[in-house]
Amino acid sequence: MFYRPEDGHGLPHNPFNALITPRPIAWISTQDANGVRNLAPYSFFNGVAYVPPQVMFASTGVKTDQDGTKDTVANIRATGVFCVNIVEAEAVHAMNTTSGDLSAETDEFLAAGLEAAACDTINCPRIANTPASMECKMTQIVKIEGAANYVVMGEVTGVHIRDNCLRDGRFDVTTFRPLARLGYRDYSIVTDLFELQRPDD
Q: Which domains occur in the chain, in start order?
């Protein structure tokens, strides 16, 4: 089949995000100017550079209690910082709770029953005891095509790694089984790895 997005796909569900899988999930923690803590998962997310280490995520859609965006982007605009927390399989239900349309005044750490910890390099909460957290200083927010589509770029200024996730000097994802987003309402858990050498290694 072939379709032009502007003409529609004719299927019962939009296939677009199912074509780009699996996607890592950034469980992003922020706080607003008054210190209200927020958590939300974003699967339009990735690392984009090594030196300095940088990440990006995209936010699409709006909330009725924010000005043309969601709490996460509004909070980053106000404070200039955010933290990316890595989602393990064990936290799937807590993560799903924070994907709900909760009010901007709701502390989503409390709503999801999660313990918060202070970041070291930025004024922002992180999820305590998550496999890893990356403290980020926002470098730019780029408005892209669409009514409420924004790409947020950040430089990683601090990294927390849970000790039991390190094996032989490597961050070993099999120790916690990261959650990945697929299409529609589907998710996957990473359990198997294989190593592949590049031709020039």
A: 14-189 (2.30.110.10)
